Structures are given as structure tokens and as C-alpha cells.
Amino acid sequence: MNGQTLHRVWRLGADIDTDALAPGHAMKHGIDIIARHCLEAVRPEFASEVQPGDVIVAGPNFGIGSSREQAAAVLVQLGVAAVIAPSYSGLYFRNAFNVGLLLLTCAEAESLGEGDRIALDTAAPAAVSPQGARLACEPVPGFLMDMVRAGGLMNLLRQRGGTPASQKASNV
Amino acid sequence: MTSMAPTRAPTQKQTQTLAQKLIARASGRERVSVGEIVTCGVDLAMFHDSSGPRRLKPMLEELGAQIWDRSRVVLVMDHYVPERDDDSRRIVRIARDWARDQQLPHVYDSQGICHVVVPQHGHIRPGMLCVGGDSHSPTGGAFGAYMFGIGSTEMLGVMVTGEIWLRVPETIRMWWDGALPAGVTAKDMMLHMIGRFGMNGGRYQAVEFAGPAVAALSMQERMTLSNMSAELGAQAGLIAPDATTAEFLAGAGAPPVDMAPWFTDEDAALTDHRFDASTLEPYVAAPHSPANAHGVSRYVGTHVDVAYIGACTGAKLDDLRAAAQVLRGHKVASGIRLIVAPASIRDQEAAREEGVLQVLMDAGAELFPTACGACSGYGDPMGDDVTVISTTARNFKGRMGSPTAQVYLGSPYTVAAAALRGCVTDPREVLA
Predict the structure, then answer these.
(1) B149, A158: Cβ pair inside 8 Å?
(2) SS in 3 state form for chain A?
(3) Do B153 and A170 touch (CB under 8 A)?
(4) Smallest CA–CA distance from A166 into chain B, residue
(5) Which residues contact B58 (CB under 8 A, 6 or more apart)?
(6) Cβ–Cβ of A89/B80 closer than 8 Å?
């Protein structure tokens, strides 16, 4: 990204869990319906008001809980450009990249506020606050950025044109 | 890389943790260093009706790919069974049809919850590297296997390639000295640790449970420790295998395994936390986080409407036995629902043979299906404003049903004691 696009911040607290992101009662449905219930227990207006390109800025431990990758796919479905938080559940971290969702690990994420318009420098990577402060994020390994650019592991595998069992799922 | 690769014992100069040894074996290496990203061969891939066929089938078809090795795949129908509506019927039908079409050799349909059923059939053994399509997959670590949870897309990668990448973790060792007092369990140990370190205290590293109090635990109690490593935020929750492991596996019909290589070297680099089991009291986690955990005394007297004994975490045979110890010869308090959903058919039948199930029924328990059920908001979820005390692993807002339900977590002793009194109770009072 070139740093020109501005992303509106949805500010969430710490320990946002997968049941909040993809509630159990909705899990029998497809991703379009699960997305309508995303975060309903903590931010009931989120699913209807979030716009493509918005970002989520959260406290530590984002995505704790279940292995259900719908908890990451709902944010892709809703057009969320990235999540920025000081830390993530390790399982959620894997799932997010596998479905093409960019997670940025940023110690100072919580200095950003609700409604802030921020820029993202995904090459650095860094988030740039409305005041121009650059918040450094931890580097994302190249093979994970490839997955984000491709739109997830499925797209990567598809691009490789069918995948015999001898090929690796990820280019590590 | 498969499990057929030779087992290598590291030399004495190159000390390694159990986690490192397991990952080295699975990646075909002599040794691995913390922080390295390595590709491992997968010895066993487990998934259920929710995370498995309904997601994997369309993705495999789209790629025109085949399962790399059916003999290493285990499918368990446990989330949407018994089917309650058209959606669950559709999901379970996909799983059954796909299992037949793919001629999967290891399928357990409505036999109980995957984390209990799969080890009970001897599929998880010391030295293996296993993945599960469910966050409580670290349960397999109780058997000295490196097992962790992954999402469906990553499982697709495993189905196609038989491999998975991971970052070699640090080891955080939880060393428990002493012996647990009567009425205090592995669940209390876990709630204590999660309360102390928080839900990301494990930092997605490997936690290893060790020490005399861990060695003294039954296999099922060890499984409870490893199971809730998920709530500690660890990737894996390991316990070095020993005679208790061997006995359980022999009973499960597993082929004999050499357990000797699978331990953490004495001077391996790790972080150690020490605990004294003999001073541990029963623990309760209050709404809405397993990390909101304190000694039971803090919550004594809190009224409850429902006492729920269920889930892979809290309704195994040992858990049912603990509940029966509290409830034998008693009735639950009036107006209280006691729900018992055994973790597996095998455990339910063993409890029936021992008379444990009858004790619970005589006390007034309602017997629910051996499935994930209300633990994850499936089955009969909890209604608005209801206060629940539960043997399950998670009490996130809305997890068991309504966002206004208040869920407390405790051991089977503590949940049974609450059923008896109608409020949160120190189980040691009623066991005395």
C-alpha cells in the first residue's frame, strides 16, 4: 500500500474472543450470515456500519478462543483491511493469514482512538496516526504476506494450479 | 516425512526440551532451535463435523486434490449431533457422505467428543506430531505427542501435502510439587494457572506440565491439563509419557510405543514456574473469562440456576466419578437443573457399569447426549439471564448461548457441590 489511503479505526478492547467474532449460534451458516453477527455481543452496530477499508485496532490477545477460522474470515467478508493489536492468539494469527486477513502486531496500537483515520505502510510495516506518528509493527514473514496478497492459502494453491501432494502448502 | 522416520535420541551435549525433540523428529532433523520455522510431517490429522468435511470437501474439489494419506485422518461427528434442525442435519450428512465417498478408515459418529474419543481409541501416541481442527487439540499433548489446533484452510493444506509449518516454541514448564488435597483437581490447577498468567500467558509457546503432582494424576486428569492449555494461550500442552500413559494406551488398544526418548533434558533451556499442589484450593472462574479465576471462597453463596457437567474438559469418566462422590445419596437443591453430558459413549457406559451414572440420575441429573452440546452454544444453549456453573473450559460472553447468561467455571466437585446447595459452594465442605 502507498500510505495514501486512510482507514477508519474501530477501537476494541483486550481479549476479543472468537465467540464474539463468530458466535456459536451462527456457526451452522455460511460466512455471509455469520458476518452479520460479528461482534454483536461487544459492538452491536459493528456488522451493519463497518465499511470496506476500515481497520480494527484492539488491545492484547485478539482472537483468543476457538480454532474456527470464520472468526477471521468474517472480517475479510466485511472488508476490514487489517487488524492492529499488541498481541494475538497464535491460532488466530495462523488462521487470519490463511484466509487472507492482515494482522499487524503493534506494541503502541492502543494509542490509536475510535474513528481515527490512519494510513498503513505494509512494507515497513507501520501504522501512521492522524498526528503523523509512525507506530512500528513487527515484521511479517514474506510467505505470510504472500498469502495476504493472494487472498489466502486457497488462492495461493489455486494459482499454483492444482497441488500434488509432494508440494508444500506454504513456501517456508 | 512420516512417522516411519527413525527416532533419534539427541546426544547429551545437545540438550533439548520435549517440544524440541518431538518437532525435530517430525521435521526429520537431529535437533531444532527455538525460533526456527520448520516444516513437519503430520502423523495424524483430526477434525470434526463443524471444522471438517463441510469446509474441506469443497476446497479439495476445487483444487482437484486428494487426501495425502487416509490412514492418518480421523473424523469425529460431535458438534452438530444429535441433529436438531435442518442446518445440523445438512452439516452432519455432508460429513457422513464424505466419509463414505472417501472411504475414511477412522470415523467416530456420535461416539462422543473428539478430544476424548480419539485418544480412547489409541490414535494419539508418544512421539507423534498431530494437528486437530479444533482449539482444544492440545489435549493430545497429555500423551507426549506434539498436538495443536488449526483452522480449516490450514487443515486443507495438511490434507493436500501431509505437512505443516511451525515455529519451534520456547518451553514454559509448570512444575507442580506436593500432592493435591481431596476435592481438588487438575481443573483447579488449570484455573489457578490461567488466573495467574492470563489467557495469553502461554504466548503460543509450548507449555509442559511436570513434577510429582502431575505424575500422580490419572490419564484423564492429565488430559484436562493439556486441554485447557488452549485457555493459557499455548500452542501445545505437553506431559512426558510414563507408566500411566502406557497403561492407558494399552487399554485403548494402541500398538506399543518406545516412550524412552520423550522427555525434557535436565539442563534444557526453558522457563520454570513452580507451584505447590498441597496448598491449592478449589478454583472458580467468574464471567466472562477463564482468567477471571480465584479461590472458590470468593464466590461462595452466589446463586446458580444450572449446574452443567459436560465437555471434553469436564465430563470424562474421572469427572463423573468426582461429581458422584459429592452427590451420592443426595438430591440437587430445588429449582436447580443439573445437566450431565458425558464426554464419550465409552465413559458413559463405564460410568453406568460402576453405578456412577445412577448416583447422578438419583440426585436429579438430566442426561444429555455425549456431544459438545451447550459448551459451545450448540445443542441446548443457555437462555437469557441464567446463571450457570460449568465444568467446561470457556465462559466468554455468549459462549454457552445468551450474551446475558452468566457462566462460572469450576471442577466437577465444585459444580456438583453447587448443584447440591443451589449456590457456589466449597466442595470440601460437602465431601467432609
Answers:
(1) no
(2) CCCCCCEEEEECCCCCEHHHHCCHHHCCCCHHHHHHCCCCCCCCCHHHHCCCCCEEECCCCECECCCCCHHHHHHHHCCCCEEEECCECHHHHHHHHHCCCCEEECCCHHHCCCCCEEEEECCCCEEECCCCCEEECCCCCHHHHHHHHHCCHHHHHHHCCCCCCCCCCCCC
(3) no
(4) B161
(5) none
(6) no
Measured between beta carbons, which residues in chain A are less than 8 angstroms from residue B157? 98, 153, 157, 169-170
d(CA A83, CA A38): 14
Q: What is the ipTM of this complex?
A: 0.87
Grid-cell match 446463571, residue found: B387
Interchain CB distance below 8 Å, A24 and B377:
yes
CATH number belonging to domain B18-260+268-275 = 3.30.499.10
The CATH number corresponding to A7-138 among 3.20.19.10, 3.40.50.1000, 1.10.10.10, 3.90.1490.10 equals: 3.20.19.10
Fold match between domain B18-260+268-275 and domain B286-431: yes
Q: Which residues of B touch A60 (CB under 8 A)?
A: 200
A160 lies within 8 A of chain B by CB:
no
pTM of the model: 0.93
**Residue range B108-125, pLDDT digits in tens:** 999 999 999 999 999 999
pLDDT digits (tens, 9 = 90+) for B251-285: 999 999 999 999 999 999 999 999 999 999 999 99
CATH superfamily, with its number, for domain B286-431: Aconitase, domain 3 (3.30.499.10)
